[in-house]
User: Fold this.
Amino acid sequence: MIVISDRGPLGSEALELELNPRISPFNLDYTLDCGQAFRWKKIGNNWSGVVNENLVRISQRGNRLHYETFPEEREDEDFVKEYFRLDDDLPYIASLINRDKTIGDALNRLCGLRIIRQDPWECLISFILATFANMPRIKGMIHNVCQHFGRKINYKELAFYDFPRKEALAAASINELLECNLGYRARYVKDASQSLLEGGLSLDELRGASYEEARKSLHSLKGVGYKVADCVLLFSLEKLEAFPVDVWVRRILQNHYTHHFNAASFEKSYLTPRVYKEFNDFGRKYFGGYAGYAQEYLYAEYSPVMTRCKNNKDRMSLYTCLDDFP
Assistant:
């Protein structure tokens, strides 16, 4: 049920959405703080981010979400329900992926963590930039790109930026992109922007393709490897069976699902295509059609960068603990 309350800090009408925890469990902090999105920032009890060219301010108190948008005032609950995938039957999903004590413990301790339904274009460029970079570097690169090429949203003394359109990044010179501290990723960003602008690939159409077909199409873009493709498929293209594997997910599987792999799988410290495929195939086959949810719960519960922060008595943002890791 949506309730319109007084004017909020952004000057728009503050809305309140009441959730039924039995039907639609949701935890805003777990969802925004588990590494799947890069442009949300928490100040006090409120999260702020830019979604669909609007500044969004949202907080959770018990089973109630309080939110407002600026400059467009969203006076309905559709945005929140769609973006945070409140239409996903989380209890049902949990029942399907709860295959063992390892994932069961993660589901219990992180109840309410949901996959976000992101914009495919922003998700693609964000994860191209996320390759071989730690969280502060990723967030810095994305901020620079938005600041240089996005539309400015003025709010009081603060400035926010929407995500640049593909036309802006396709028209940018390599030197302009390098000024955003992108390094070798600058060429990949420009190539991907030009490829999508010229009509060779439509991200929206990939929603209707099979997982394998969609992943193959994403691989045709320079700079999009297996992990980037799986992240885009999972977080923006409705492929909840996608199971992204990075060094942390691989270590989690090695530590908690050792008997599913042979010793040769652990020999190389880096993710070759063969090693990636082995761990990715396991995740999708073992956890099934909602393997992506299993991956996110395992990562949030067992990766060192997350666990250390969850146990911190001050409950600092999970992101602040990523500074120490390459």
Notes: The chain has three domains: 2-87, 118-237, 240-317. Residues 1-7, 312-326 have pLDDT under 50 and may be disordered.
